[in-house]
What does this fold into?
Amino acid sequence: MVFEFSVSYMITYILTTVLAFSGVYVGALLALMAKEELKPGRAYLKAFENTLLVFIFLILLYSYDANIIVIILLGIVASVFLYLTTNKTPVNQIAYFLLGIALYFSTKSTDLFIMTATMIFL
It folds into this structure.
């Protein structure tokens, strides 16, 4: 389902985008409240974050009818890249920029947009 332009859709998209990216601030607040839990769970949180990034990437490729072999190969390459560069580069700064672009491309359908926004919030 493709949306036609209207003010109500625009407001819905803006509010959903704000809520999706507010997960950054909710996570920072949780980190302040539970400092003793942050250090032992850091590796798991990083792995979860990287997994969500790869899932968003793959779901967008699938929704735009990419070849399944290409999707699998790109998923493997993205996973290996994130695994090797997680501790060496500031991936978060690049990731949130790319997540914004992914959210734009997910406006193709309502279900895809909601799913992408939910994964960005997490």
